[in-house]
């Protein structure tokens, strides 16, 4: 599904789809923001959602906030690459921006749940790299949900009670990062992305590059 761009070393490679998932509150939004700030060549996929906007969120930056009929129309019109129901709300990935970014040689970062990750994997296994973020403990998870101070106590209780179910999907992911400390977890996630960008299979320009090197040596 990708056509490819150039790596930092000038060798052409296919773009990759970098997925972060975790139980709510484990830190994927924090880590995603750092990745987008600090990793050139990476674009965030902005999901559509029917959930209410939280204080501080911006429409079009954090999510595309849509009503249920609009979401249904996007599903019917095949405008979503994947979609799922989470916490009684619908969430989905608009297809157009992802395909445009990959075609322009960019990598795309997804903050989506395990259901969406499964759907992406079915569509583009070779291009999907998935990371599951775990909290260091249940107490830390609860503290983080409260410290974010953006959800009611009832919503936080719901998110805590779903955490165990969400975590049961950890073994479907390529990498597992435990988010004790933001800087350390960021360094780990960044290392994964850097290494995956160098994978031989997605560096489609290597054959030509090596041939040219050999030509120079024989020259
Ligand atoms: N499948 C899917 N899941 C999504 C999408 N966007 C967000 N999610 C997931 O929906 C869940 C709830 O997200 P949100 O309401 O922002 O709360 P958060 O868990 O605190 O980030 C998280 O697990 C997100 O990863 C999407 O486009 N598709
Ligand atoms: N390693 C960490 N130590 C302490 N607090 C953290 C850590 N990582 C994230 N947080 C805080 O926890 C809260 C939930 O993080 P967030 O990134 O919104 O999680 P998610 O997107 O997975 O729901 C936020 O207030 C965030 O600042």
TrEMBL record:
Residue sites binding ATP per the record: 22-29
SMART domains in the record: GuKc
Coiled-coil spans in chain: none
GO CC, alphabetical: cytosol
Pfam families the UniProt entry points to: Guanylate_kin
Main location: cytoplasm
Known catalytic reactions: GMP + ATP = GDP + ADP
Keywords associated with the record: ATP-binding, Cytoplasm, Kinase, Nucleotide-binding, Transferase
EC number: 2.7.4.8
Class of the enzyme per the UniProt entry, highest EC level: transferase
Keyword ATP-binding listed: yes
Domain Guanylate kinase-like, residue spans: 15-194
MF (Gene Ontology): ATP binding; GMP kinase activity
Cell location: Cytoplasm
InterPro entries the UniProt entry points to: GK/Ca_channel_bsu, Guanylate_kin-like_dom, Guanylate_kinase, Guanylate_kinase_CS, P-loop_NTPase
Annotated function: Essential for recycling GMP and indirectly, cGMP.
Family to which this protein belongs: Belongs to the guanylate kinase family.
NCBIfam families listed in its UniProt record: guanyl_kin (TIGR03263)
Official protein name in the record: Guanylate kinase
Organism: Bradyrhizobium neotropicale
């Amino acid at each position: 599904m990708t056509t490819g761009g150039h790596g930092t070393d000038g060798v052409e490679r296919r773009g990759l789809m970098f997925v972060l998932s975790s139980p709510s509150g484990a830190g994927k939004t924090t880590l995603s923001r750092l990745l987008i700030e600090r990793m050139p060549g990476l674009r965030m996929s902005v999901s559509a959602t029917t959930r209410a906007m939280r204080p501080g969120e911006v429409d079009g930056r954090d999510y595309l906030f849509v009503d249920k009929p609009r979401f249904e129309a996007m599903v019917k019109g095949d405008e979503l690459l994947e979609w799922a129901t989470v916490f009684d709300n619908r969430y989905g990935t608009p297809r157009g921006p992802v395909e445009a970014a990959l075609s322009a040689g960019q990598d795309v970062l997804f903050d989506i749940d395990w259901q969406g990750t499964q759907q992406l994997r079915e569509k583009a296994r070779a291009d999907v790299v998935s990371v599951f973020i775990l909290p260091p403990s249940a107490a830390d998870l609860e503290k983080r949900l409260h410290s974010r101070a953006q959800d009611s106590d009832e919503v936080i209780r719901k998110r805590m009670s779903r955490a165990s179910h969400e975590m049961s999907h950890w073994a479907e992911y390529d990498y597992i990062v435990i988010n004790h400390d933001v800087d350390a977890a960021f360094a780990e996630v960044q290392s994964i992305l850097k290494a995956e960008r160098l994978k031989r299979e997605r560096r489609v320009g290597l054959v030509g590059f090596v041939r040219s090197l050999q030509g120079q040596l024989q020259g």
